[in-house]
Specification:
Length: 243
């Protein structure tokens, strides 16, 4: 899959998100949580970088413009143009894959879905679980399968980072654990942070206004608290003669 060449020192700054323990181990993968933090701008910036590197080759964000991403995430226009906006596209364009639908269908047997609303339709936890539960499957066309979406047509495009793992199933057919077959470039904690940042960005893409709505909400609450205090003082002034 085509990757955009991105060297973004500014986005690489900032410590990776802390690796959160996944209660119950791999067997409890359905209880894994993405733990999104839309207020973490550095995470969103890294997530944007991840998406442009590994996802936009097949997937679009047809409701999101490059310019909006830059403005919301605090990425300078020149950095956006040099590193995130593909050659031939304008910063005012929507984030669209360059892969023709006919080629995608011929390659995967299905056109990869637009991911603009994936976290709103499936949930952030689902996307997080999906990106972490690929496993080797010689019967699959792509050579891998997925616990969250069995029979997925999507190859494990992040295998160079995560590595390749085998799924161990018990006699009853229930999944028990993963075993590493080929180590990846990143440690488990680093890959977990990579996935969390990517899912965080996808949650932002599903509703960019959510960033501003949350900020406005804080001011609204502060206003209501102030108004309540003033109303209480006014009530005390009116009723002091009665008491």
């Amino acid at each position: 899959m085509r990757k955009l060449a991105i060297i973004m020192a500014a986005l690489a700054l900032g410590a990776p998100a802390a690796f959160a323990a996944e209660g119950g181990g791999a067997a409890a993968w359905q209880q894994w949580h993405a733990g999104n933090e839309l207020g973490d701008r550095a995470s969103l910036q890294r997530g944007a970088r991840n998406f442009m590197n590994y996802c936009v080759g097949c997937h679009s964000l047809k409701y999101v413009r490059y310019q909006r991403v830059g403005e919301d995430l605090g990425i300078a226009t020149d950095i956006m143009k040099a590193n995130l906006v593909p050659s031939g596209a304008k910063i005012t364009d929507y984030v669209l894959t360059a892969m023709p639908a006919s080629l995608a269908n011929a390659s995967f047997g299905i056109v990869p879905p637009d991911l603009s609303l994936i976290t709103r339709s499936k949930g952030s936890d689902y996307v997080y679980q999906f990106l972490k539960t690929f496993y080797l499957d010689p019967k699959a066309t792509t050579g891998t399968n997925n616990l969250a979406l069995p029979g997925t047509a999507m190859p494990h495009v992040l295998s160079d980072l995560q590595g390749l793992q085998r799924a161990v199933f018990g006699k009853d057919g229930r999944f028990e654990k993963f075993e590493t077959d080929v180590a990846g470039q990143e440690s488990a904690a680093e890959y977990d942070s990579f996935v969390r940042d990517t899912v965080n960005f996808l949650e932002y893409a599903g509703e960019p206004a959510k960033l501003h709505r949350a900020t406005i909400g804080v001011w609204v609450v502060l206003y209501l608290l102030l108004f309540t205090a003033i109303a209480w003082l006014l009530k005390q002034e009116y009723w002091k003669d009665v008491h």
